[in-house]
Design a protein that fits this description.
The structure is a homodimer. Chain A is α/β, with parallel strands linked by helices and about 350 residues long. The first copy, chain A, is about 45% helix and about 15% strand. Chain A has a 6-stranded parallel β-sheet, sandwiched between helices. In chain A, strands 7-6-8-9 form a 4-stranded parallel β-sheet, sandwiched between helices. In chain A, strand 6 (about 190), helix 9 and strand 7 (about 225) form a beta-alpha-beta unit. In chain A, helix 1 (about 15-20) packs across helix 3 (about 40-50) and helix 10 crosses helix 11 (about 255-270). The first copy, chain A, is elongated, with a radius of gyration of 26 Å. The termini of chain A are far apart. The interface between A and B is large, with 53 and 53 residues. The structure holds a DNA duplex (16 and 16 nucleotides).
Chain lengths: ~350, ~350
DNA sequence: TTGAAAGCGCTAACAT
DNA sequence: ATGTTAGCGCTTTCAA
């Protein structure tokens, strides 16, 4: 009976090769290009490897092959249903191709993002996913000079010269504005994310404003409030809007968390939603469907987005020129929106 | 005026050293042990490095130093508020020490977990975080033989010989059972996670059952339903329990998602919660506090847990023998629990 | 204090 | 088809 030798942590291709009377090159070939080794030798090599409990040494491998089979993802925060799904989709997709995910979060700080980009480059990621479009041009140059493929997600602007997979945030917000206007609202409010250092939040406010302007409606500054993406902050923002001499009859929120908070505040104040005030969200996280009343929102297929991003990166890493993907966000009308109370001017939805 | 030379992606310590009339060893020292280089030379070296736009080559560095400054985390899924926070805490903590996070998810499959453990070992992580306690002993041996520090989280069993940071799931479930019994419930039900391949879920059911048995109460099999952690599944499970000839007056759910789904089903069926039926959750994710009625649950400080896990790993990597941490889960009583309707035997809570 | 040089473990030319 | 060997870019003795 053969004694099972404890796998020595120091076992190297070379040592195993020597012990087995085979060259380390053959062992390496068996690992990387098995078809180039004759079946019998291959079998012997594999037995050798298995018996030694061989575990490849990634760093050595990367140094020699100039590949890490690792991809990076830099997101604002993991603690968000949206980004969690995005990361999940990416990780699952690259996993199928034998890649690992190096994850970093920035907490919405451009400085931290820059640092993480550099860190991931040092770690030798073969490609990386970024969120949003605005960042120091130097970073783009760095990525370019290092020849590292990347995609940006959660936004889309045909003018940007790099690979993207996302949507047009301004257009999306316009879509919400149009819907609200179409069902008769004329006094609107916005609870947005902090737009500084968040181009998605800024674009949404811009798109919303533009849509209103186009239809001859004003959006005075006090009707636009920026808040971090938390429920309590959203409640405070909604309370502020409701304290206005002429409160809005509909409020677009920067995402579903804000919408949920806004909704809670209304209910707390015994306002009926949507009869007395309409609220919209963004993202369509699960809670938007489950809470009562269900939140009208734009559906963001985050998991798929992560997968698409991964596919683009995988392709780029294999040398295929990347193709952009711009997705249409579907408007999910639920129970937080309705024509304004006194509206007799309500028209049919778009 | 000095022309800013484009940072060549091929710039290596050696080439920069040669160009500057300095040895690559000195450059390396400036990077890793600056105090060992005389200030003037150090300044010149740093200028050289900066001008070249030098970016260290991680693989080469790791190969030579046998360190990657990378830690791994393997969790069931990112798409869970609990694990998202756990990962967030870990990532932030290690980030402060210059480490990067290699993230993998298993979708609750032991096979995938084993694969990811091996993958992370290959990638050379300096340490890793795992969730739960039960896995193939070979994995523990592998980790041990490779000398890779690890912690397991989300569980605690003083009998296990490796570092842990978590809580006793059986005891936690007992705590819930005792609370429910104390306020007078006698016919109880459980909606648990799938306990196969999930020791946390299994331990909770076991702890709950044991607590009931101790007080002379039975828990017939049809009162225990296992379901994946999703809202619709939980609704189905609750519907099944409610169809029982004698439905339970209180249901312990395996986590807050299940509790939320169970709650929704009750509301849908026009049952009043907690008047007609009590429900408890586990984790205290934000939704548990925000939904109406608020869910009675056990608070799991996931973010802090991630930080603690990171600290242990960081310490272990620095050679400090790890210390376990077992935390007490606080019971958060909200609005989904109350004495059973017809109960005259209700006693004060524990 | 600084430089020279020997690896770290592997891959991929190149040689056989 | 297989073996030999030269690096990959860095850290770290070891000498100077």
């Amino acid at each position: 009976m053969k004694r099972k030798s404890a796998p020595l942590s120091g076992d190297t291709l070379k040592s195993i090769a020597a012990a087995g009377g085979i060259s380390s090159a053959t062992l390496s070939r068996v690992l990387n290009h098995p078809e180039k080794v004759r079946p019998d030798l291959r079998a012997r090599a594999m037995a050798l490897l298995a018996e030694a409990g061989y575990v490849p040494h990634g760093a050595a491998r990367s140094l020699a092959s100039r590949k890490t089979r690792t991809m990076g993802a830099i997101i604002p925060t993991v603690d968000s249903a949206l980004f969690a799904k995005l990361v999940d989709g990416m990780q699952q997709a690259i996993h199928e191709h034998g890649y690992q995910l190096l994850l970093a979060s920035t907490n919405y700080s451009p400085g931290r993002e820059a640092g993480e980009v550099r860190a991931l480059i040092e770690r030798g990621v073969d490609a990386m996913m970024l969120v949003g479009r605005s960042r120091d041009p130097e970073l783009y140059e760095l990525l370019h000079s290092k020849g590292i493929p990347f995609v940006t997600t959660c936004h889309y602007d045909a003018a940007d010269p790099w690979p993207m997979v996302g949507w047009d945030n301004a257009a999306a917000a316009q879509r919400i504005a149009d819907y609200l206007l179409d069902i008769g609202h004329r006094r609107l409010g916005v609870i947005a994310g902090i737009s500084k250092d968040n181009d998605r939040a800024a674009d949404r406010v811009a798109g919303f404003t533009r849509a209103l302007t186009r239809r001859g409606i004003e959006l005075p500054p006090q009707y636009v409030i920026e808040k971090p993406y938390t429920v309590p902050e959203a409640r405070r923002a909604m309370a502020t809007l409701l304290r206005l001499p002429e409160p809005p009859t509909a409020v677009m929120c920067g995402n579903d968390i804000l919408a949920y908070g806004a909704l809670q505040e209304c209910l707390w104040q015994n306002l009926r939603v949507p009869e007395q005030i309409s609220i919209t969200g963004f993202d369509n996280i699960e809670m938007a469907a489950h809470c009562r009343p269900g939140i009208t929102t734009l559906n963001v297929p985050a998991f798929e987005l992560g997968q698409r991003a991964a596919q683009i990166l995988l392709a780029a890493d294999a040398g295929t020129p990347p193709e952009n993907v711009c997705i249409e966000l579907e408007l999910i009308v639920r129970d937080t929106t309705a024509p304004p109370r006194s509206s007799t001017s309500a028209r049919l939805g778009s």
